[in-house]
Every structure is written in structure tokens, then in C-alpha cells.
Amino acid sequence: VGAESRLPYDRPPLSKDVLAGDTDMSQLELRAEDKWADLDVRLRLGVRATGLDIAGRAVTLEDGTSEPYDGLIVATGSVPRPFPGAVTLRTLDDALAIRTALDDGARVCVIGAGFIGAEVAATARCRGLEVSLLEALPVPLSRALGDEMGAACGALHVDFGVDLRCGVVIERVEPGQGVVLADGSLVPADIVVAGIGVVPVTDWLEGSGLTIDNGVVCDETLACVGAGGAVFAAGDIARWPNALFDDEVMRVEHWTNAVEQGDLAARNLLSGGNGEPYAPVPYFWSDQYGVKIQFVGRSAPGDEVRVVAGSVEDRKFTAIYGRNGRIVGCLGFTMPRKVMQYRRMIAARASWDDALRAD
Known about the structure:
Helices cover 23% and strands 28% of the residues. By secondary structure, the protein is α/β, with parallel strands linked by helices. It has helices spanning 17-20, 25-28, 92-103, 115-126, 142-145, 147-159, 255-269, 336-347, 352-357, and strands at residues 49-53, 58-61, 66-68, 72-74, 78-80, 108-111, 131-135, 163-166, 170-174, 178-181, 186-188, 191-194, 198-200, 216-217, 231-233, 238-242, 248-250, 283-288, 291-297, 304-311, 316-323, 326-333.
């Protein structure tokens, strides 16, 4: 069951290759339409789930029908936070609409310098368009990467001529004109794209008996709390304790996590109560201006950050994050082999000293 009418497709290219005009739907499909016939799968596309009856083991749909189940995977993901007057990017249709504006040579303003906003800005700039990138925080991505590494990400945009403005307060969007800031100034734009975070799609689960708290709360095997072992969750919507990081309860909004969680949630659902704990090293990547940005692990305020290879000035480096005597994260700019090396060390719970010696 899926709310979108399209066949399941790959989302990461939407903010990159699709906006650049370098790919089409046939390259995004996870499985070609004629290949679905080979599977014992019935697709219900273009219809939303509106309710869950745990006792009766059935999902209610917006067309008035219901789907009974013996086992259920909840994977409804998330939706972008809206900003009045701005468009958002989540679906292929969103991407195609934004690409039309880019094809017309639009001046682009992006609200939010997180990874989605940064990728939209980078793609538009690489197409030769005038781009402004507005961020409320003093440093882009400081909550995800810390101030020093967040500043490195911001500097990459400045290198390529993006008008990056941090610590700004937005008053409103004026359609066809641009974005009005709190100081009264206008940032000119023909299209305004908001990338200010997402919200997990849990509204349809209210009253179901599942525990909802910034997502669907699960145990370590991804079984939903309150469902008696018949309902599991995966992807942006799942919130679970990760034993690798001292049972930190986390919700991860990245492609790799969705793929790995979906696989394990399905296997655990079919295991008859012998499910495996989900304890990965979280991983995400972003491609901007020909630079591959990769991060593994978890960062937190107060982490020690050390550049162990390359240099920030050259925009090619590896930095590692330490906490309580242990390596907990690694950021790389076009150094994938180094990042994977430290990912293995994080998985092995290597000490901070061992990580510093590893290079």
C-alpha cells in the first residue's frame, strides 16, 4: 500500500540527477513495471492508510476499504515541513516541478542549509543559476556535524558562488519576488525551495495503540511497542534503541538506514519471535559540486573532532569524532576508503586513541 501513485522508486537522485536533467523515471524505478508480475505482490498505489486496528489486524484505507494482515510493516516515512509560499522536495513530482523552473533559468532561493537544501542549491548552481541559500543557524549543519565541520560544508557553497547567509530570520515569501528578511531586505528569487526538515507520517496511527513519540517507538528488533509482535517499522518513521551507541533512542532519516531497516524488519517479522537487534553504524552521503560528502556514526555537542587526513582548505579530508574515549563518528570529503575504514572501527567500538593511531 502506498500513497504515491507511482511504482516504488529511488529518492536520492531527486535533488541531484533529476534536478540536473540527467535521469528519468525508468532509471529511478526500483523494479520495472513488467518485473512486478514475477512477484507474489499486490500493489495498492495512490491510496493512503488512514487507520490501524491492532486487535482486528487490519489497515483502513482512504477509499473506504481495509487490508487484513497477519504481519505488518509500517514504513510511511516522512513529509517535509511546509513553509508558506515555498515549494518542498520529497517526491518525483516535486522534483519535476522544480526542474521545470530551473529549465526556465529561475533565480533560486533555498531556505534551510541541511543536506536536501544544500543539494538543491548545489545542483541549481552547477546549472549556472543564481542561487541564495538561507540558514537560521549561525553555521550550516552545526547540529548534525558540529560548528567546525558545518562551516566546511558552508564554505563549499561559497567556493562555487552561492550567496550563503546564516543566522537570518525570514519574514515571509513574496511570490514572484523572493524572500523578505526580518531586516526588511529582499532576497530576489523566482522560485523558493524550503528544506527545513521533515515530520514522520504518524497521524494515521493516532488511537491505534502504538506508542507515538517523534515517530513510532520500537524495541531493539524494530517491533512496534504496543502491537504484540505483529507490527514492525522501518525507515524515517521508526524510533528504536541502538545498542551500538549505548541504547541511544534514534530515528534516522537516510536512505541506507531505510534499506537496511526494511530488510531486517521483514526478516524479524517472519522469525517467529527470534528477531535480531538492529544496531548499525548510521551512514549517509551527499554529492555536491563533485565532492562526495559522507558521514558515519553519530555526532553530539561536545564531541572532540580531529582532522586525520587531508585538509579542510583543500575540501578533501577526513575528520573523526570522539566521545567518552571512543570513536563515534567520521566525516569525509571525497575520501570514501578512509570513511569506510573508520566505519569499521566504530562498529568494533574502537577507542579514540586507536582511531587516532589508525592513520
